[in-house]
Amino acid sequence: MVRAGRLVTAAVAAAAALLPLGVLAAPAHADDEACVEYLAGQGQDDDAIQEACEAGAAGNGPECLSTLVAQGIAPSRAAQACALAGRPSDDAAPRSLDRLQG
């Protein structure tokens, strides 16, 4: 159990290094929906994903990241989802989502 906790901590720390600094500051009208859509169909707890994406949109990138990784999402994918959540809605256009998912 301790080993699993350390592994999650290491994964979160590694992914946090990938997060742009802009995710840590709450922009006006951040886009938690882009985060949720990016992770759609992953098979994880939808409520936990929604809460994580809302945290990212509120400017709490580390909480977003750690919650998503705890749900079994790869750290790099979680970092991208949290980055999407932290962007202003205008920057997270569906066109951008299609490019990221495809």
UniProtKB/TrEMBL annotation:
Keywords annotated in UniProt: Signal
Signal sequence range: 1-25
Superkingdom to which the source organism belongs: Bacteria
Protein name: Secreted protein
